[in-house]
Model the fold of this input.
Amino acid sequence: MSDFNLHAAQTPQPIDSQYAGALKISVVSVIGLIPVENATVVISYTGDPDAPLMTLTTDSSGQTPIVELPAPALALSLEPSPSEQPYSEYNISVTAKGYEPVLVTGSEILADELSLQPIRMNPLEMTEEEEKIVVIPAHTLFEEYPPKIPEDEIKPMAETGEIVLSRVVIPEYIIVHDGVPSDSTAPNYWVRYKDYIKNVASCEIYSTWPESSLYANILAILSFTLNRVYTEWYRNQGYDFTITSSTAYDQKWVYGRNIYENIDVLVDTIFANYLSRPGVRQPILTSYCDGQRVTCAGLSQWGSKYLGDEGYSAIEIIRYYFGNDMYI
Done:
């Protein structure tokens, strides 16, 4: 079995696997984010949804125990692997008295990592739907997504009538448009800024990477996001959102996806940071790409992983790709 420390994890039934990750589920009401106690949580393989692996019950904090689940070999997430998926996928079905049932499909488990799966439930009086379904698509490092459309890293500020903040502000919330900018049918979501960054980081990189690599990638994600906030990029084009979930225009974000404990902690530590250059007020629009299937002028995600393996610090990784005048 994996040597992952499960911190007193509870496994309701034995699971035979050479490698394992862990999962903790948090269930809250969409009204006031109140914990939902005594919710029934059923976990199954996404590929075999009708064969439950375990059934859990939430405590007074709306949380399940930490449980151990089979995962592919750790090594698969440490090298590009176009054919072998480096994470396992699980369905999570949640029911609770007075609430609309929720089904999450494709929650991703990496070997030796603790995954945190948020669940938000609608009170029955708010909806007429029979079940809310959250679909988590394949990870950006495993599946092919549209490559980023190149943009200048510093946005011009001289246009008449352009809305630009007077200083860099770390917002509490941002509005995420879940589609390309021109898709008026795509929903907008109000998302806490830190939760948005954690979600994007969990979509864009593997939490199994060296901490300095994670730190460098999160800095790039933070700076990219704050450039969109600072320049009011989409509002200046007549849109009513801050950023999109499209990889062609912005960064991957998935409603309701799981995040990873180490990414959660790291973002909480550095969320107010961003990257800039001397004499530049705005956060830099830091481009990045996987560096294998797609290359770009900015940070290579896989390249940053290898530099972390070699002992590079986060700022050394950043300067390797963006130049020595980039600073935090």
Observations:
- The longest strand covers residues 20-29.
